[in-house]
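Minutes, structural biology subgroup

Action item carried over from last meeting: produce the structure token record for GNAT family N-acetyltransferase (Deinococcus hohokamensis). EB confirmed the sequence was re-checked against the source entry. Recorded below for completeness.
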Amino acid sequence: MAQIRLARPADRAALYRICLETGDSGADATALYDDPELIGHVYAGPYLAHAPDFAFVLEDGDGVCGYVIGALDTAAFNATLEREWWPALRAQYAEPAVPAGERRRDEVMAHLIHHPPQPDPDVLVTFPSHLHIDLLPRAQGGGHGRRLLTTLFGALHGAGSPGVHLGVGGRNTRAQAFYRHFGFQDLRVLPGGGAVMGWRL
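Output recorded by EB:
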């Protein structure tokens, strides 16, 4: 039985690897990036560094095979990243000059480093926390995603959060179905069929 535990700084490489290997709407994105760390810099590293109390990993006999990471107060977390996370990465990765529709995956991530997406303030009123969850194929389909979410929800609720939100892309229909089956409610429709979904804690 795979075990859930708090993430540790030593798990950074594993989180980055999982982020990359699930980074193409749930499929392996390794071949899509020249810099394999870029997607992890955006979607995994900030949480391990600045929200460690809400970062959990799933570990089986072969190592870390999944994670759920979140932030208690999205607005405060984003402010922290502006001070302490993005500046060094902005110095390392130049803002791409090519138009949005012509960017390669590395350039898309570099753009996000310079222009992190801003949440809808109306969503934050009821769902101030947010999360990301990723599992390798060997960890999918066995109830581990539900266990990870339940673990994070307990931590967020215990810290006083009334609700948590997440965003899912339009191509990731499997994830959308999972969240809706879990009980998430649709909050916003995103371009391309994506959605922002929320869960009351």
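Discussion: The first strand starts at residue 3 and ends at 6.
Next step: EB to file the record with the rest of the batch.
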